[in-house]
Each structure stands twice: as structure tokens, then as C-alpha cells.
Amino acid sequence: MTDKITVALLCGGRSSEHSISLITAVGVLGAIDTAKYEVVPVGITKDGRWYLTDAQELEKLTAGSDMAEFTGSAQQVFLPLGAGDSRLHLVDSAGHLEFGPAINVVFPLLHGPFGEDGTVQGLLEMANLPYVGCGVTASAVGMDKHFMKVAFADAGLEVGPYEVVTDRQWRHDRDGALERVARLGYPMFVKPARAGSSFGITKVDTAEQLVPAIEQARVYDPKVVIEAGIVGREIECGILDGHNGDMPRASYPGEIEMQGEQGGFYDFEAKYVSKTTAVTRCPANLPPEDLERMRQLAVKAFLALDGEGISRADFFYTPDARLIVNEVNTMPGFTPISMYKTMWEKTGIEYKDLIDELLMLALERPVGLR
């Protein structure tokens, strides 16, 4: 018997951000308070199968590789789907069933579709298991750059000009879609509507580049969002929910400064692997009143999605001091070099304590309608 809180840590997953999730899991496993928590890592393969894994296997997979893949282990995992039983169900290759540990809380360190978009959150609700992060609706809206912008605008937040091209529009009215998009002017940014970590994003400077950019985005998602280029600095702000219904908290805003090549994307390498490609400035070099205004708007954006637990809000800060919200990420990068973790450290919460805060928030929140 143990007095520790048992945490099922989910990583991997079916999205293009599978490897990022594995890197995140290694970071959390290295920082979590093992005197308080018993962690049960569960890896999800790219085809959606769940297996037991451990820190050593995940460290080995991600060492020296930015495109690691979890392919399974000896014991497949199934969640309990009945009230009153929170034990994992473990099945070996011969089909033998045994019961694993009873789970107190789930930490879904999953990025992108089939993990961050409400699907896993719905499964955990059905299994009556508390979990870290946003619920079903907030996760789904926060994953879709189109509906997220609709929610922001409805809440009175300023969003940049954009257009949406659905799969149906692209197949049946391509000329009309291109005509709408062209009105945004150049440069523009073409993005998969429901992907992250810079996958499938193209900066488009000419009309000739537009169709290839949309086709590239469609590799990741048949629904595409095209955003007008905005002149401004990109500033981010971390959000951490309040306890027992208190208002959410906002970190000091931070800014990524790319090193070396000018104008490059803050891409996979810079976000999750390299410690030298990008430098975080936190607090960002803004007037104090604008820093505070951004923190207030970050909380407003979080509430616009009905967010819970954890999120990161991204803004454009224009030369005339406007703050244009770009997106809220409901499961931001959470590795030891990630922006979210760094901003909270600068605000006064260390990585280990931040993990503890998120798990405590999940445990005090009821499962189901709330």
C-alpha cells in the first residue's frame, strides 16, 4: 500500500505531434515529485493503441532524435469504463488480462488531434477519471483555429483578418476560395486549422505560392486557415487556473527572440530540441501597463474558451500598442525548455511546483458537467 497519488501519464498519440509529446513526457517524468506521486506512463502509438511504458524507455526513444516514435510494449492498456473501478486493465500478447494500479488522476501530455482536441478528454470523462487541463468543449474549440477566433471575437477580443477554406470549398469552389483569400493581401500565413508545433505552416508572399501552401497545409488537415500577415512582435502569456473556482492566473508575458538567421520560424527544433536557436525574454520588453494589459487579456481569452487548468495565449503586439490575440494553446509545450514552463519560472513557480499545481487543480475539479 502507498499514500502516493497515482498519476497515469499519457504520451505519444495519433497526431503529427507524436514525438513532441514523448519529449514532453520525459521532461515531466524528470521533474515530478516522486515522493508525492506514483507515475504510470502510458504510451499511445500512432495507430492509437495504448501500452505501458516507463521513463527509461521514453528517454532512450527521445535521446538524440527529434522524431521519436513509440511503437508499443508487452502490455496493452485499456481504461476502465465503469463507475467505482479506476484500475487500468492490462492485456499481454497472449490475451491474458490482469488489473493494474488504480488511477487517481490522468495527465494527458498529448498535443494535436486525438489528444488535445477533446477526444481523449471525452474518453476520460466517460471513464470517470479526473484529468489535467481543459475539458471537452474548450479543448475542441482551442484546437480549431477557426472556431477559436469566432469565440475570441464574440468575447470582444481583437483578432487579425483571416479566411477559412474547408475541404468541401476546396474541392467544389476552389476559384471562389482563392478569390476570398487573395483579399487578405500579402504576406499571409497558411495553416492547418487543427494542428500545431509549426507543422504545415507556410508564409506566402506571392499569388503563385498560395495553392502549393494550401495543399501543404491540407496534408495535415483538410480544413485550412489563412491569416493576414500582421506587423508586430509575437508575445506569449501562460495561464494557470485558480483553485476552487478562483480566477485564472497569468504569468509574466514572454517573447521569443530567434538567434542567427533573421525572420525564421519558431519551428519544431527551436521549440522542443535546441537550447540555442531561440532565447526567451521574460518579462518581455514592454511598457509595464502593456504587460499588465496582456495578462488581463490572456485570462479573458482563456475564459472565452471556458478553459480549465492550463493554457498559453499568443498575441501580436503592434507598433501602435494594439494587442491582437492569435491563439490559445490548451496543452502548450511543457518540456524543460518550453516557453510555458519558462514564463512561470520567471513568475515564481518552478517546474516541479507547476506540475504539482496542475495535478492538484485536476483532483479538486469534478468530472462531468461543471
TrEMBL record:
The gene is ddl. ATP binds at residues 145, 189-191, 197-198, 227-234, 326-327. Mg(2+) 1 binds at residues 314, 327. One of its GO terms (molecular function) is D-alanine-D-alanine ligase activity. Its cofactor is Mn(2+); Mg(2+). Keywords: ATP-binding, Cell shape, Cell wall biogenesis/degradation, Cytoplasm, Ligase, Magnesium, Manganese, Metal-binding, Nucleotide-binding, Peptidoglycan synthesis. HAMAP family: Dala_Dala_lig (MF_00047). GO terms for biological process: cell wall organization; peptidoglycan biosynthetic process; regulation of cell shape. Belongs to the D-alanine--D-alanine ligase family. Cell wall formation. It is an enzyme of class 6 (ligase). Its main location: cytoplasm. Binds 2 magnesium or manganese ions per subunit. GO terms for cellular component: cytosol. This is D-alanine--D-alanine ligase. It is found in: Cytoplasm. It comes from Rothia aeria. Pathway: Glycan biosynthesis; Cell wall biogenesis; peptidoglycan biosynthesis. The active site is at residues 17, 197, 338. Mg(2+) 2 binds at residues 327, 329. Its EC number is 6.3.2.4. Pfam families: Dala_Dala_lig_C (PF07478), Dala_Dala_lig_N (PF01820). It catalyses: 2 D-alanine + ATP = D-alanyl-D-alanine + ADP + phosphate + H(+).
